[in-house]
Amino acid sequence: MLIINVNYILSEYISILKQFAPVASAKEKNITLSSANLKLSLWDKFTVYALGSFMFALKVRKVGLCTFHIDKEGFSRKSNVGEKFISWKKVINIHQLSNAYLMELEQGFIPLPLRCFDNIQRINFEAIVAPKLITSTLSHN
Questions:
Q1: Quick one: 26 exposed, middle or buried, by C-beta within 10 A (0-12, 13-18, 19+)?
Q2: In the predicted model, is pLDDT for residue 94 greater than 80?
Q3: What is the pLDDT of residues 23-70, one digit of tens each?
Q4: Full residue range of the structural domain in which residue 105 is found
Q5: Which residue from 20, 71, 82, 139 has the highest number of Cβ atoms inside 10 Å of its Cβ?
Q6: Rounded to whole angstroms, how far apart are CA atoms 81 and 28?
Q7: Pairing between strand 109-113 and 66-71?
Q8: Quick one: which of 94, 134, 136 has its CA closest to 112?
Q9: Which 3 state secondary structure label does DSSP give 50?
Q10: Domain assignment present for 130
């Protein structure tokens, strides 16, 4: 079992949103988006930063430090709001971004910053989630 402690950082959270926003938007419109088209306009970047900062403040205040227990059955997250187990069957995809793994759930997303993993944990995590892992070519815009 892997144990990962996550204390989210605003700049990291915004970076995750900027990397994934175009993909999420395209999926909502049932469009396949190539990595070459993953550019955000200046207005989009401002919107992501403004809304992302607000969402981040709410999330950090409500959730706080998270401890994830990860195994072949799924993962549990323990935080200020309690503990919840989610099986891998409920995870749609896990996107590997430049600075995080982003677990795409049926309802919502859970980021796991790469800085929270040591090398062995990353190897073990990727082995556990291999069927769901999508290696992204998303760039920082």
A1: middle
A2: yes
A3: 555 555 555 544 434 566 777 777 777 787 878 888 788 889 999 999
A4: 2-135
A5: 20
A6: 29
A7: unpaired
A8: 94
A9: helix
A10: yes
Residue 12 identity: E
Structure token digits, residue 48: 């992501």
Number of domains composing the chain: 1
Nearest Cα to 95, choosing from 87, 104, 107? 104
Hey, what amino acid is at 11? S
User: Phi and psi of 120, rounded to 5°?
Assistant: -65, -40
Q: Show Cβ contacts of residue 51 under 8 Å, excluding neighbours closer than 6 positions.
A: none
List all residues 6 or more positions away from 27 whose beta carbon is below 8 Å from its beta carbon: none
Which residue, chain included where needed, has tokens 């709410």? 58
What letter does residue 31 receive in the DSSP assignment? -
